[in-house]
UniProtKB/TrEMBL annotation:
The keyword Nucleus does not apply. Keywords: Hydrolase. It comes from the Bacteria. This is HAD-IA family hydrolase. GO terms for molecular function: hydrolase activity. SUPFAM superfamilies: HAD-like (SSF56784). It comes from Streptomyces broussonetiae.
Length: 235
């Protein structure tokens, strides 16, 4: 392999909990809720699928369904989809829906998996070029910079910048081109078997990780180094 492509959410980083997300937005708005009400509202937002990078909607409302399918193709569509879902949940003030959306783009809302830096540095040490390929509606580069991972990323290929989303092989093709890598010598690492698995149609090898909370997946990325070194996954 000469290159490795990584998904963003659920692969290299994990979004904060719905309760932390709501608490941060309310604090920014200067609004305080009783703890029980805050927890119940966070659960309702999570069930609605309103937190980008969190759980998918338990039920997709008809008025959001059309934009949901193309949400990763532009910033406006992405915002419309997720604020449309959050508005299914009553909040103390209408402006909090937009504040919630803005909060999820903040670097503080994201935490890298514990072994992300180790694995990215290990790839650089092996002379492997690294790209990030994400279905997303906003610029995630500041998240990488804030957490000190940007130095190990050679290219970012984001769906909203190309109007193409995974599993479309063209997005992976553009990532390989950005890295100067042949697909057959490229490994795609992601947590979504449908979206990230689309790289296989281009001839890339694919490796999946589990989309778990950061504390529950301390070493999920380390097998990538083992794969490149030609040894079995670490225990």
């Amino acid at each position: 392999m000469s290159a490795v492509l990584f998904d963003f959410s659920g692969t290299l980083f994990r979004i904060e909990s719905a309760e932390s997300w709501l608490r941060a937005a309310l604090s920014h708005a200067g609004i305080t809720l009783p703890e029980a009400e805050l927890a119940a509202t966070a659960r309702a937002l999570e069930e609605a699928g309103a937190l980008p990078g969190g759980a998918f909607p338990a039920r997709l409302p008809a008025e959001v369904a059309e934009v949901w399918e193309v949400r990763d193709e532009s910033p406006d569509l992405h915002r419309a989809a997720y604020t449309g879902l959050s508005r299914r949940v009553p909040l103390p003030h209408p402006r909090v829906h937009e504040m919630l959306y803005d909060r999820h783009m903040a670097p503080a809302a994201w935490t890298p998996y514990p072994d992300a830096a180790e694995v990215l540095a290990g790839l650089r040490g092996r002379g492997i070029r690294v790209g990030v390929v994400s279905n997303i509606g906003w610029d995630l580069r500041p998240v990488f910079r804030e957490h000190g991972l940007d130095a190990w990323i050679d290219a970012y290929v984001l769906s909203y910048e190309h109007g193409i989303r995974k599993p479309d092989p063209r997005l992976f093709e553009r990532a390989c081109a950005a890295l100067g890598a042949e697909p057959r010598r490229t490994l795609m690492v992601g947590d979504d078997r449908r979206a990230d698995g689309g790289a296989a149609a281009l001839g890339c090898a694919v490796h999946f990780v589990d989309h778990l909370p950061v504390t529950e997946r301390p070493a999920g990325l380390r097998p990538v180094l083992d794969l490149l070194d030609g040894v079995g996954p670490r225990p």
